[in-house]
């Protein structure tokens, strides 16, 4: 079952929020909360509040166990912008746009938790193996 929580009109740019939201997608909620607790950004605090709200919704409204929940989706949408103006030289004005965000987090107990992938030590492309010299090529090199 999917359970969601929404935090609207967060006073932070969506660009800054999306960096943090990408980090927790697809993770179990315990691991996602650990990552958010140790991320020193304002966005991590706001996403953490919303994630804890989604967990509480799942436990209280739908009787789901928090240990089985996985962050299915962490979406950051753009909210309304506050438009302000700053006085500039010679009677001019420069616009200042203060952006807001809407945070939407969906947790689910139906998503499989992916197993960590084993990292290979090699490069991105496998190197072509050199062919062992045959008797004919070895004899040709000796004669030359």
Automatic annotation (TrEMBL):
Cellular component GO terms, alphabetical: cytosolic large ribosomal subunit
> What is a biological process (GO) this protein takes part in?
translation
Q: Where is this region: Disordered?
A: 114-144
Which InterPro entries does the record match to this protein? Answer: Ribosomal_uL22, Ribosomal_uL22_bac/chlpt-type, Ribosomal_uL22_bac/org-type, Ribosomal_uL22_sf
- UniProt signal peptide: none
Entry's Gene Ontology molecular function annotations: rRNA binding; structural constituent of ribosome
- Record keywords: Ribonucleoprotein, Ribosomal protein, RNA-binding, rRNA-binding
Q: Mark out the compositionally biased spans (Basic residues).
A: 118-128
Q: Phosphoprotein among the record's keywords?
A: no
Q: Which Pfam families match?
A: Ribosomal_L22 (PF00237)
Q: What does this protein do?
A: This protein binds specifically to 23S rRNA; its binding is stimulated by other ribosomal proteins, e.g., L4, L17, and L20. It is important during the early stages of 50S assembly. It makes multiple contacts with different domains of the 23S rRNA in the assembled 50S subunit and ribosome.
Similarity comment? Belongs to the universal ribosomal protein uL22 family.
What does the record note on quaternary structure? Part of the 50S ribosomal subunit.
PANTHER family noted in UniProt: CHLOROPLAST 50S RIBOSOMAL PROTEIN L22-RELATED, LARGE RIBOSOMAL SUBUNIT PROTEIN UL22M
The protein, known as:
Large ribosomal subunit protein uL22
Origin species, per record, is: Sulfuriroseicoccus oceanibius
Encoding gene (name): rplV
């Amino acid at each position: 079952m999917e359970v969601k929580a929404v935090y609207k009109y967060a006073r932070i740019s969506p660009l800054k929020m999306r960096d943090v939201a990408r980090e927790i997608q697809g993770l179990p909620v315990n691991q996602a909360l650990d990552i958010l607790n140790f991320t020193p950004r304002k966005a991590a605090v706001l996403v953490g509040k919303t994630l804890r709200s989604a967990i509480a919704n799942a436990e209280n409204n739908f009787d789901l166990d928090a240990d089985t929940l996985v962050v299915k989706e962490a979406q950051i949408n753009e909210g309304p912008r506050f438009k302000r103006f700053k006085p500039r030289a010679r009677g001019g004005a420069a616009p200042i746009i203060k952006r807001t965000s809407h945070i939407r987090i969906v947790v689910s107990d139906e998503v499989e938790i992916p197993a960590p992938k084993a990292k290979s030590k090699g490069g991105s492309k496998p190197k072509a193996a050199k062919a062992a010299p045959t008797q004919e090529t070895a004899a040709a090199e000796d004669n030359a």
